[in-house]
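Weekly structure sync, notes
Attendees: PL (lead), two postdocs, one rotation student
Agenda item 3: pending single-chain targets
PL asked that the sequence for the first pending target be pasted directly into the notes so everyone works from the same version. It is reproduced below exactly as submitted, 181 residues in total.
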Amino acid sequence: MQVSVTGRNIEMTDALKKYAEEKVQKVKKFLNTTIDAHVILAVEKFRQKAEVTINANGVKIHGEEVTEDMYSSIDKVMDKIDRQVRKHKERIWALKNKQHEKDVNIKMDIIAKESIEEVGDTPHHIIKTKSFAYKPMSVDEAAMQMDLLGYEFLVFRNSNNGRINVLYKRKDDNYGLIEPE
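Predicted structure, written out during the meeting:
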């Protein structure tokens, strides 16, 4: 992590520079990419201003804070930066989770197609078994998933009754629903 500390209208002491660098270094544990940070400490009359800009692999995070004490300004601006970094990480995590759900559905479709192809003329042998986690959904959500992913059928847990259902596409482009009794 590369940190540069600049002072405007302020005498930069080693303690102040070291304090700012240590605070910015704490962000490193949340971002596992190359990080460039630029800290600007400025004094304007009686106002002590701390401004931090972090560039983490194309993601720019910026914050600034003004108080009457420089150390307090640094603490407050780093709290802002910390919140922004956490929010960014949560967004990435949510996108990865969404992609993971898609991958699971695609794998489920591949397994289902493989098992249909295996039925052929040979006796039925289970060659491969997979388990996966899925979220309960309504029949309408299952139909939307099928359309989005191009599935011929979808096995899902119905959120209305909690049972496993099968939704399948009919030859007339309508849907059929199989529900257990």
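Discussion points:
- The beta strands are 2-8, 35-44, 47-56, 59-67, 153-157, 164-169, 175-178.
- The chain has two domains: 2-85, 98-178.
Action: rotation student to compare against the earlier draft before next sync.
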